[in-house]
Amino acid sequence: MRTVREAGPLVRELREERAWSQAELARRASVSRTFVIDLESGKASVETSKFMDVFQALGFEIAIRDSETGAVRW
Predict the structure, then answer these.
(1) Closest to 53 measured CA to CA, from 34, 29, 26, 20
(2) Integer Cα distance of 74 and 72 in angstroms
(3) Mean of the pLDDT values across residues 30-50?
(4) Is residue 53 classed exposed, middle or buried when 0-12, 13-18 and 19+ CB atoms within 10 A define those classes?
(5) In terms of Cα–Cα distance, which of 42, 11, 9 is closest to 29?
(6) Which helix (H) or strand (E) holds 73?
(7) Is the pLDDT score of 44 beyond 80?
(8) Which of 3, 20, 57, 73 sits at a 20 to 30 Å CA gap from 9?
């Protein structure tokens, strides 16, 4: 994933796999439902800390992968 726009559909997919509403994900991530809507729609100006909170609430960690070598860094 290279952009927030690419993250939006993934967040929606993961949320729907858990059968969570946007409101439920927002509650679990301690963000507003509006933030979840913005994130899922690919709005580029979402706050990074909240972005991370959403993935953590979904049970995922974010790693950085070198696009040339594939090496993962934490």
Answers:
(1) 29
(2) 7
(3) 90
(4) middle
(5) 11
(6) strand 72-73
(7) no
(8) 73
